[in-house]
Amino acid sequence: MRPDPTTITFHRDNGLVTARINGSSYEEDFAASVLHRAGFVPVARLSDRFHRLPTAMTDPDEQRRTVTRAVDMLHDKGFEFSSDAELIDPGQPYTAGPQMSPGDQVDHLTRAISAASHTREAAAGLSELTAPGNGVLQQVIRALHATADWWEGLGEPADPHYANRLRHITRELDSYALEIRSMRDDLADRHTEHPTRGRPAADPDPATTTRVSGARSVSPRSQGIATSTVTAGHATQPGPPLTRPSSAPGR
Fold it and tell me: What is the pLDDT along the chain (251 residues), one digit of tens a residue?
């Protein structure tokens, strides 16, 4: 029996706009990530979980624009929704979510590392995270520093505290990033197959085997006969071997 589709319900109650996810826990995380990117804030209570718009977002027009954008992004990901009519602006241009978010790109690294059978493959994925300059972790650290600088001047007495706390966390993350980079180097130096994650040998494709055997049986080269290469309807003789520039001093 096909499970009911996950539906997100938007509702305004006493000025507070909420979004509730109704569906499987597996899809709930994906729907929550869309709401998060659309600007909603998660709320977790003892017996209730939902998302809401920021408490200071009280302008009905801005609420309508935000909910409409969230609905577009959810629809783009295949989710269904229901909403109070007053929360949707049918005239607002359609807003599709990104085809691949930065988080999706990191997820590709996760899958590649999980599927790796050799240290060079696992180290390659880890290298994208730990690369100096523009690696994922370094970019995260820069983004957090920029957020702290921006937050500090927001104007409330507690803002410098938040900014300093964020800088402290960022320094800790920077230290861990250096340690992880060093561990990546150790992993790269191992250069060995994983003892339990080797790729199983694939069964040969009968069609491919037949094709290769047939090609060998009629190939002049397989019979020891020299031949020219045919390209675009005319014969061309193989060119001279590639000569690389010398790396010796003075050359």
Answer: 445 678 999 999 888 899 999 987 778 889 999 999 999 999 998 888 999 999 999 999 999 999 999 999 999 888 999 999 999 998 999 877 667 788 888 989 999 999 999 999 999 999 999 999 899 999 999 999 999 999 999 999 999 999 999 999 999 999 999 999 999 999 999 999 998 887 655 555 555 444 444 444 444 434 443 333 323 333 333 443 333 233 334 43
Cα distance between residue 235 and residue 127, in whole Å: 46
Write b or e for each residue in 171-196: b if 16 or more Cβ atoms lie within 10 A of its Cβ, otherwise e. Answer: eeeeeebeeebeebeebeeeeeeeee
**Crossing angle between the packed helical segments 119-130 and 102-115, to the nearest 10 degrees:** 160
- Domain hosting 142: range is 102-190
Domains in the chain: how many in total? 2
Give the Cα separation of 177 and 165 in Å (integer): 18
Q: Are 32 and 103 in contact (CB under 8 A)?
A: no
Q: How far apart are CA 163 and CA 149, in angstroms?
A: 7
* 184 and 111 within one domain: yes
Tell me, what CATH number does 45's domain have? 3.90.1150
Q: What share of the chain is helix, strand, coil (3-state, %, to 5)?
A: 50, 15, 35
Instruction: Please list the residues that pair with 17 across neighbouring strands.
Output: 12
> Distance between CA atoms of 113 and 125, rounded to whole angstroms?
6
